[in-house]
Amino acid sequence: METTAFNRHYTEISHITKATVSLQADGVSNEELALVEGRLAQVVRLQDGQVTLQVFAGTEGISNDARVTFLGNAPVLQVSEALLGRFMNAYGLPLDGMEPAVGVRTEIGGPSVNPVRRAQPFEPILTGIAGIDLNNTLLGGQKIPFFADPDQPYNEVMATVALRADADVIVLGGMGLTNDDYIYYRQRFETAGVLHKLVAFINTSENPAVERLLVPDMALTAAEYFAVEHHKKVLVLLTDMTLFADALSIVSNRMDQIPSKDAMPGSLYSDLARLYEKAVQLPSGGSITIIAVTTLNQGDITHAIPDNTGYITEGQLFLRQDTETGEVIVDPFRSLSRLKQLVIGKKTREDHPQIMNACIRLYADAADAKVKQENGFDLTDYDQRCLQFAKAYTRELLSIRVQLSMEAMLNKAWQLVADWFRPEETGLKSELVARYWKGKK
Amino acid sequence: MTKGKVTGLIANLLRVKPEGPVRQNEICYLLTGGDRLMAEIIKIEGETVFAQVYDSTRGAAPGDKVEFTGQLLSVQLGPGMLSKKYDGLQNDLDGLEGIFLHRGLRAAPIDLSELWPVSPLVSLGDRLQAGDWLVETTENGLPHRIMLPFHLSGHWRVTYICPTGNYPVTHTVARVEQDGREINISMLQEWPVRLAMGAYREKTRPFKMMITGVRTIDTLNPMLEGGTGFIPGPFGSGKTVLQQAIARQADADVVIIAACGERANEVVEIFHEFPRLDDPTTGRKLMERTVIVANTSNMPVAAREASVYTAMTMAEYYRNMGLRVLLLADSTSRWAQALREMSNRLEDLPGPDAFPMDLSATISSFYGRAGTVLLNNGQRGAITFIGTVSPAGGNLKEPVTEATKKAARCFFALSQRRADSKRYPAIDPIESYSKYLEYPEFAAYMEDLEQADWIAQAYHIKNLLQRGREAADQISILGDDGVQLVTHLLYWRAELLDFVLLQQDAFDEVDKYCPTDRQAYMRRLLLDICDRNYQYDHFNEVRPHFNGMINACKQMNYAPMGSPIFEQHLQKLEELAGQFLDATSPV
Ligand SMILES: Nc1ncnc2c1ncn2[C@@H]1O[C@H](COP(=O)(O)OP(=O)(O)OP(=O)(O)O)[C@@H](O)[C@H]1O
Ligand SMILES: [Mg+2]
Fold first, then answer.
1. CATH number of B453-577
2. Is residue A110 a contact partner of residue A280, using CB atoms and an 8 Å limit?
3. How far apart are the first and last CA of chain A?
4. Residue B258: closest CA among B193, B207, B191, B187
5. Cβ contact B331:B239 at 8 Å
6. How many angstroms separate the CA atoms of B325 and B81, rounded?
7. What CATH number does the domain located at B111-190 have?
8. Closest CA to B128 of B101, B148, B99, B149
9. In the prediction, which pLDDT does B587 show?
């Protein structure tokens, strides 16, 4: 960060907490940036001449006569096409040893799009993964997280989705990323030859936690530039939003805010919504699609972080390992894409909604049968068939290793249903059965 | 007007030192960085005034100027609000420049240049009081009455009334006099949003069913015109889909939708679909009867809190002209969270889950603004209010759900289990209730319509569903062959009712809207089957038998009533329903 002769300096800090410092200062404005002994900080409270600064890198070792320099503006990113191919830190400074990208200085965390200026999402994003395309079709302009336990391969799946999604620009926001995962993403994108359309803001687990708070805003400001100015289809990957929310709670707890559920700030919903709502389909053709990762603690989706996320995003993709087959799948029960109904059966084949639902319902019956089995009861013939079906459905469709076209997924689904059931057991519409049922009716 | 200076701020809460008198809840403007940002006083403490800014306060600083207006937060009321899309502070979103919502932008809520065909409803010398109808115009095919302003007290004599003609809203349509004071009345008036609008004779108990076309509501837990209800449910359980179905299908004159802290794409869906879709009762376009108040989750939090009041005040205005208004708010939990954020910043003593102590009172006085009213002229108006609640962690034991339960008379609980198994709408038929089933007024009304069996059958169906659930529990504990055959029958009867009556595909052209005659027909048909005494030799026979009947009924649900496909499956159903009958006992 550059400072100039016009910057104001102070050297008398009155309070220091883990994440904040306070001092007497004049002419300071809300959300303005400052440097505290060289560490970036931001104004979070002003009262009677007293200024409270949130120090992103933490306050460890800061002395009470540290030099505080106010920079006169909120955090900015210089946006231009020069961002493409760059790896930067949470402040937008290069990690790749090259000169900083120059461009138009844009304040991050800017205003939202007027809802009447939005277009309705319409374009399916196909990934080849049936748990997504068939059961939870994604659309351009959607915002959706993967819910996954830390041991699930969410970064791999996310990279796969990003590479198959056919985006014009990919923006990666890494928060608390392990160094190994950072290198994994880098190599995977490099091998795929897409570095020229990638912009990355990386905060690794070695970097200070509070710095992460800047990453999503940086990523989304870059995304907005390409979507609004260049009408690009931008895919934003945010991993891991749980670590972002943890950083929020560090700051709010240091600010003596009354925590609500799970020690999270009461404003968690608004803080997350402000970011996720940047997802948009613009009438000009540009779009911002956000795919995020929210790691869970032992599948607990009632924790405040996944819970608030679920209330904000347009569905969620629940990754889990199927115990029966060992396959990693996108769970058909707890996953949801809320925008799918805009396209399924309209942009995709007419039978899509019905066959999708029929499979899920039968899969649910299989789950009931399994409970019966575990409780030591005899299974009926129907129960047996449900279990067989579920196994095949998991192996041949749901597994994230399977890659199929939309058409092939639909055909496969009809095939599996016909293998194990009679039409009247499926509740499928009779016209569709007449047209698509495979084999004996 | 009083001026002042900012002395401190945290997020959107300002501390201001005023130079003169100020009043609680008055609107003021913060002048910062060339913008004029609206704010509302929420606390006065000695020399310091606390004001919440309805916008981003980035760049604001101590020393910034504040101008007080002396006015409470108000909305403008007049013809031209129907089919508008407002933000939470009643800015016309279509009137705002640019793609982004830059802070401080304003757009007039009502078009001042449009001409309205006006005809008088009173004569010179008539004595009127607040709320009485003066002249009438037509707004999107609905009668729109211009009323004597609600803040006037006592009786006023008409000294001038405009001749029939076309006028803009600012035109003086009447003059009235009281004790020698004469005032001009235009078609515009203002009302402070946090104050319930009176100007009617009395509130009465609701009695008339508000048809929604959603079977599990109308048939089992009916909503009444002027009634209140709420829809709690975990994320993804179908609150918004259900509410939007009600917005599309309900038999109401005016529908006001408050999108309160929810997704922008959901209002975009309304913007795109409502202008194309028809109102099932009038055949006009849905958008023509609809007003949208959108404060989506990315818009400033303080304005979110105001938005539900903005919507309610508009509803009261249309109610006072004798219309049946349906007000929907999605989600009232976001409103409660906005209250929480503010009270935390004010360092008020927190109640449960850090919500303000008076949350329950705030919620119940809001629900209390709904209802049926008898106007001074003997006509009736109604506000039906249905809010959604988004309980943290999906757990209904939390302050917003509990407070709302005390305030609302219908409870449509969405269940995660039903949503997971795609049994939509996921309204739990056993947990949910409509207190209106117990209203004698409602029973009398249904009797007048020759639908007296509606209420009795609703109880009967609930009972069958309850027994089905008990049967399911027994089967899962004791196993298929550990229970009697009749337990299987009880279970499958409930499944039949569930699949055919409770479940309804909101995205199917035919199934999404079920008119009352069709509901009555299907209900009687299903109860007739449920009353039959089937005899099986083995429990294995029950599933295929009922599966066949369920399938036939579902095909009927997807087909227009009376169509060849409908009749064909009806025939199939009757054939199946005739099997396994016990010849020895009467049907
Ligand atoms: N009646 C229905 N018919 C078919 N699908 C439905 C129905 N109701 C809900 N769904 C499915 O469930 C999804 C989620 O529904 P909805 O958006 O209404 O949930 P919600 O309760 O409002 O969630 P949130 O609290 O997060 O806003 C829908 O996108 C749709 O796929
Ligand atoms: Mg919703």
1. 1.10.1140.10
2. no
3. 71
4. B193
5. yes
6. 13
7. 2.40.50.100
8. B148
9. 42
Q: Is B249 exposed, middle or buried (0-12, 13-18, 19+ CB in 10 A)?
A: buried
* Beta strand spans in A59-101 (E): 68-70, 76-79, 86-88
The whole-chain average pLDDT of chain B stands at 94
The class of domain B3-72 in CATH terms is mainly beta
Q: Residues near B513 by Cβ (< 8 Å), separated by ≥ 6?
A: B213, B248, B249, B280
CATH 2.40.10.170 residue spans of chain B: 3-72
Distance from the Cα of residue A413 to its chain's centroid: 29
What sign for the dihedral angle of Cα A52, A57, A63, A65? negative
Q: Where in chain B is the domain with CATH 2.40.50.100?
A: 111-190
Closest CA to B116 of B152, B81, B74: B81
Complex prediction ipTM = 0.91
Segment 10-29 of chain B within 8 Å of chain A by CB: 10-11, 15
Greatest Cα-to-Cα distance within chain A, rounded to the nearest angstrom: 84
Q: Who wins on pLDDT, B585 or A19?
A: A19
- Shortest Cα–Cα distance, A191 to chain B (Å): 35
| pLDDT tens digits, A198-211 | 999 999 999 988 89
Q: What CATH code is assigned to A2-70?
A: 2.40.30.20
Q: Is residue A46 a contact partner of residue B9, using CB atoms and an 8 Å limit?
A: yes
Phi, psi of A21, deg, nearest 5: -130, 150
CATH number of B202-434: 3.40.50.300
Per the CB < 8 A criterion, the answer to whether A54 and A19 are in contact is yes
Helices of type H across A255-339: 268-276, 304-312
Structural domain spans, chain A = 2-70, 76-338, 352-436
How confident is residue B461, by pLDDT bands cut at 50, 70 and 90?
very high
What sign does the CA torsion over A192, A195, A200, A206 have?
positive
User: Which string of b and e fits B31-58 if b means at least 16 CB within 10 Å?
Assistant: bbeebebbbbbbbbeeebbbbbbbbbbb
> What are the tokens at A19?
């994440």
CA B262–ligand 2 middle distance (angstroms): 7
Confidence check: pLDDT of A255 > 90:
no
User: Does the beta carbon of B351 lie under 8 angstroms from any beta carbon of chain A?
Assistant: no
In angstroms, the Cα distances linking B106 to A113, A307, B28, B35, B96 are: 15, 34, 15, 11, 7
**Yes or no: is domain A76-338 CATH 3.40.50.12240?**
yes
Best substitution site from B241, B244, B263 to test ligand 1's pocket, by max atoms within 8 Å of Cβ?
B241
Cα A281 from chain centre: 17
Supply the pLDDT for residue A251. 80
Ligand 1 mean position, distance from CA B184 (Å): 50
CB B31 within 8 A of CB B66: yes
Angstroms from A426 CA to nearest CA on chain B: 8
